[in-house]
Amino acid sequence: MTASDSEPKITPLRDLRILVVEDEMMVAMLMEDMLEVFGCKLVGPAASIAHALLLISTETIDGAMLDLNLAGHSVYPVADELARLGIPFVLVTGYGNQELEGGYNDRPRLPKPFRRLDLLSIMETTFARASNAAQ
Amino acid sequence: MGTPMSREVKASPIPRPLPEDASEVSHSLMERSPVPMAELEGAGHIVRYVNPAFCQLVGKSKQALVGNPFAETVLEGDGCLAAMDRVYHTEKTETYTESEHPGSHPVYWSYAIWPVLGADQTPVGVMMQVTETTRFHQPAGAMNEALVLSSVRQHELIEQAEKLNEQLQAEVADRKAGIEALRKSEERYRALFDLGPVAVYSCDTSGVIQEFNRRSSELWGREPASGDTEERFCGSHKLFRADGSFMPHEQCPMAEVLSGKISETRGAEVLIERPDGSRITVIVNIRPQKNGSGDIIGAINCFYDITERKQHEEHQKMLLNELSHRVKNTLATVQSIAMQTMQNAPTIEAFQDAFESRLVALASTHNLLLQNPSQVVSLRDLAASELSHYAADDDTRFTIEGDDVSLRSERAVPIGMMFHELATNAAKYGALSVLSGRVAVSWTLGEDAGTLHLQWVETDGPAVKRPSRRGFGSRLIERGLAHELGANVRLIFDPCGVRCVMDIPLPPVAEMS
Question: Which of A62, A113, B109, B429 pairs as cysteine with A16 (C-beta 3.0–4.6 A)?
Fold first, then answer.
């Protein structure tokens, strides 16, 4: 029952280098598994803002999945840096549809918990440009 | 003037007629006198002689008068007759004044009556002379009347004055009582004004602060100078709108009520910044004061502090957000456990067993966290809780040794799951799968107490074989802990027993890389 799920599939996200910023160990592992299925190359995961910023400055990144709350700290510094570099990102949040600071209300948002198909869909939409460029 | 005549009269004794010769002389004198005179004889006062002036006075002829009693002919009143009787009997001269009131003005008559003695020096009659003295009496009478009138008037005035005085006294007493009541009422309102929990101040029409109570200055954090024309509308240092934007004093609700731009303010939320920089949120209520013709002459502002309520609301909102965050993360964690358990389970039954026990392990860690109000859990309790699923409390196969360390939620949950995975593995394949096996959990704190050195050591169990593929437990311990806690983790499959050695940083891990 596990073999077919773990086989990488041909998707528009194949070989995209995706940064995962998530402090919850199990959620990060879940994301990791799903990205593997989508054929993405994982960057991270980073559990802290400092680690995330380090990875952004040292790795090639096509897109990012950002948990909004990192152990009580807001992920905005990481989002700001990605926005500055023009790298697309999705905000992953356990909060409802609350107002976000710094004009991030318009950014794609994925509520926790999420279905694989919802993750795939929002990643395809958000990272389409990056995806096209990569193919 | 009558003295010589009297002497003559005395010469005639009663009841004899008056001597003719003497009478003739005196009568001729009296005939030409302008003063009315009469000569009366005996105790009955019979008229013997009257002069023309007398006849003119009484309006009767000499013939009608002479020979008749005086009382019948010229009755002038009892007073006159009584005086004549007295003079006749006492021989002493009398004068007598009497008044008549024929019209609005009294007429006064003065009588001079003296005795006429006979030759034997006994009275034979009396002489009477009548003079009208109205002229003399008039001014006196008028004066008297005026005096009486003025006395009456004075009395009336005094009475009136007394009445007025009484009224005045009553009014003064009323006024005093009123003033006292007002003073008490003012005192009451002053106490309410000063001691009430609501801040109150008033402005005149130009916004100059007239009065403010203690609570106002407490909330403002300062005391404006009363009546200071440089400072208008509000005694605060700075004002901000509820959305946090700066609000100049001349745009504050008080200014708008005074200008008539808005009729009044009820329940408006305003932020006050005090001179020390602290900010409070207040609810403002302002009503204008108007004069009789409806012009605004000032306004009163009642405001109160809701900072605590605001903070409470914010805190509640934050708690709800935090709750939402945790619940969703926990659900995502469960989702992750389910998926990973599924990937590694050879059968549905194996999946069920593993998934259930992992959920229970997760729940027991949360239980431990919730038992403590500060949401920390002791490392010892955490280890004991996970091991207790596989060995009784009195089981001597495992030992737990270490200093007291409290863990917050973000470290307790992964460490609890790690204990669960190690214990499950030990119970299935390792030291806890046989009676002779031992598990020693021990830890020490690094010198700076910033690092927790944690060891899991299995001995005397079956020989350990390195697993052919990396399962959920290994992945969680080796990568998960390293990831979430920034820990340095070594999981060693020593043939003598599984060992796990971890260096876990204890300060907040969020900024660790």
Answer: A62
